[in-house]
Design a protein that fits this description.
The complex is a heterodimer of chains A (about 280) and B (about 200). Helices cover about 10% and strands about 30% of the residues of chain A. Chain A contains three helices and 20 strands. In chain A, the strands form four sheets. Chain A has a seven-stranded mixed barrel with strand order 12-19-16-17-14-13-20. Chain A starts with a strand and ends with a strand. By secondary structure, chain B is α+β, with helices and mostly antiparallel strands. Helix content of chain B is about 20%, strand content about 30%. Chain B has a seven-stranded mixed beta sheet. A four-stranded antiparallel beta sheet of chain B has the order 1-2-4-3, with helices on one face. The longest helix of chain B has 13 residues. Chain B is elongated and about 55 Å long. Classes of the chains: A mainly beta (about 280), B alpha+beta (about 200).
Chain lengths: ~280, ~200
Amino acid sequence: MTELEILATGPMTTVQDAGRFGHADLGVGRSGAADTASYALANRLVANPVGAAALEVTMGGLRARARGAVTVAVTGAPVPLRVDGRGAATDAVLHLPDGAELSMGVPARGLRSYLAVRGGVDVPPVLGSRSTDVLAGLGPAVPAPGDLLPVGPAPAGFPRVDHVATAPVGGPSIDLRVVLGARDDWFTPEAVATLLSREYEVTSRSDRVGARLTGPVLERSRGGELPSEGMVAGSLQVPPNGEPVLFLADHPVTGGYPVIAVVHSAHLPRAAQAAPGTRMRFRL
Amino acid sequence: MRVLTCADTGVLVEVADLSEVIALRAALAARPVPGVTDVVPAARTVLLRVAPGTNTDAVAAAVTALSLDGAERAGDGGTVTIPVTYDGEDLADVAALTGLTPAEVVRAHTSATWTVAFCGFAPGFGYMVGDDPRLHVPRRSEARTRVPAGSVALAGEFAGVYPRSSPGGWRLIGRTDARVWDLDRDPPGLLRPGVRVRFTEAA
């Protein structure tokens, strides 16, 4: 049986796939890879089917040993990568012989790196998905040193390229396209103008649930409480302190604070790569 | 009905009241709208999450065209019975707030027909609405840091059963051994939207 032996996980490594669909009416969120674009690219490099489970590595630090020969690819936040001590490339197909050790350093830019293994991480699915939802406590256990992660059978297809060129991931500041609403009418016109013209910084109180931002306070135009309503990833929810939270993959299914704007799905992967300290600008 | 959008990822339908939420959810279950990956009913809204690239205007038009009349107003998910031991820490407070005796609270709770309107807060936590407004009580001013799994509680217009131990601000009137959330069961949630619920006094 082919396995990945986890030697170190860095600050946090989880198993993720394309997410858990169709159970939101039971109060179960979508979860899944936070940066869906980098995750999909890693799977494509090793010719995995769409939706195969991979490892999402936050701020690098993963070390893993191949038990049996494996083919892997690392995408997303560019980590210094070594195989048995020798430098290796990200965004590239890597063949690890039995016993080889792959180790990641800390990414200079970005936040989340993805390790796809040909055949996928074959832990048992929960409600149709191998994603760990850290908010709901649902899905595969968070990998820890000493764990052996089974690798699934190799897919029929073979990798078609050795290496891909990608747009830079992460950086000191990012622009995100938003659409106002659904509750922009709960805010003053000045608040909407502020959101669209000023910068917000990602704080260290950020995780897979959401990026908690700090910046100019967004004033409400009305009092009262919003009855809880369904949320989508990308929602900029504004709690009473006036500083928005940008919801990511493990966001709560429903929320009771108004959403001033939602990040367009095409820019969600980039939002998920915003490390603490990153400055965000929101544009229509 | 008012239709709002959440960028290109969702269509948020605002309706008049909870009975329209229940009716719209049932109508969407009976006639699914193409492109919709998840339906999230809530207190006054139903959110439709859509697959990337879906035309949200077409989804909005399809929802607006749905009829909310007729049989779909009724619960469509069967009936479950939940046996309750009515010894909750807040039973006396609920009695005081409602002007009933504790025994009358129990009688009202077991006589009412409840319908799960939506789930939220945690996987398997169903927000149930009943037909006895005497049982409407405000939530506690301070939440408990730990409410045991199986606690049966009231808050606002809702009744709920805690699927697992968690913080919570609802008023606890009793407890049940019924497993409202069990991942080894399909579906794992007992209290799904549209399910009718009767509470009985455990022997």
